[in-house]
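Hi there. Long-time user, first ticket. I'm pasting a complex I've been working with (about 420 residues overall). I'd like to know whether the download I got is complete or cut off, because the file seemed smaller than I expected. Thanks.
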Amino acid sequence: MLAECASKLNNFSVSIESGLDKYSKATHPIRYGNYIKIRTEGYEYIFDLNGRAKIISGKRHNDWPREDWLKRTKGNDWIFYTAGMGYSNAFAYEGEYYTLCLNYNSNSVFDYKPFKSQYVLNALDSLQSFVSKLKNVIDEPACSENKVLLNKIINNNSVLPEPDIHSIIKSSISVLPPDTRHSDYDVIPVIIADGCVYNCSFCSVKSGEKINIRNEANIALQLNQLREFYGEDIINYNSVFLGNHDALVANESIMAFAIGESYKLIKNTVMLDNYLYLFGSIFSLLNADEEIFSMLDDSPFHTYINIGFESFDQTTLDLIGKPVKADDSKKAFKRMIEINRKYSNIEITGNFIIGSQLPTSHLTSMQDFINENIPDRSVKGCIYLSPLIGERDNDEIKRKFHTIKYSIRMPVYVYLIQRL
Ligand code: SF4
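Hi, the file is complete. Here it is re-exported in full:
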């Protein structure tokens, strides 16, 4: 399909396209699923099937660096994907070829701030100005063939969707599991448990609430409203995030209900495979019945569970105010290895903190304990190192990151705190 509305708006083309149907890691931009594409003289806009802008990329002659792009989350944040750190550098740190830059404070080890750059601000402005101008040309004969599609774009980019995603799930999502990178962070969030067991002092993402397990009616209501919210674009989703900070604490029956009902939501996806992501704690991992893991292993999803260990060193745990014993942290890590070996459809990964001011015993205890318990290089699971919020010495963080990355027998990446 091609529309030419040259009189009031620069020439643009509009088409419905299909991208890749499998999440992949590559040194070039990939578009996934089905989408609406509009090309203007300066930019390419990707809209989801509801007509809402999802991706903006600039043309190279327009001061736009490389093949970088902006992507909007369903929580309405724009994220800048850049190859500016170099592919091999980005891959070493993040396991991905593109580095994500957020438009809010987080814990990135990179100092690049694209949202302060004029070319990014221009790109965001260009979208609004394109949508406004579209309203003026929509009734021109040249647009008649694409009127339905273009009207969707006008209607869905002039106001924010109501209710928003956080009102539906009755929660904010202050952080996504790092493993959601395997689905390019395109996950449908379903909250089954609020709060967390430990409420650690150092943590900047906690809600501060005590554990509250949602009931079936609450989960069913979320899923019904999420179906409406995602609308036609639901077919582009194959991944679910069972929230929030410790979904593993929920009992098997609630978890099985949420998984079964979530699967109904995405079973007609155009994307291959299905992924389920959740966080767990040392407490929930040590206390979860074997039936939970058997159920997850038999589910239609490949499940990633991300556990917050933070440290194996008691001095460090006390310093950051995590109320657990180092021995329990180690016990839970051994359980992680056991589950990763036993269940082919489950992969557990571990978070540890990293900070320039932490005792040296923090990293040495990690190195010793992990290598002692993983005699050969692990094939499943990985370690994410999360720089403490407010960390100022990124050079020291990078030095420590490299030390640990090349001294333990598991893949190690940094964890960027990213919300939805
Ligand atoms: S680190 Fe994990 S367990 Fe501790 S407060 Fe934050 S979310 Fe809760």
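A couple of notes from our side: Residues 196, 198-200, 203, 205-206, 245, 281, 308 surround iron/sulfur cluster (CB under 6 Å). Residues 118-137 form the longest helix (20 residues).
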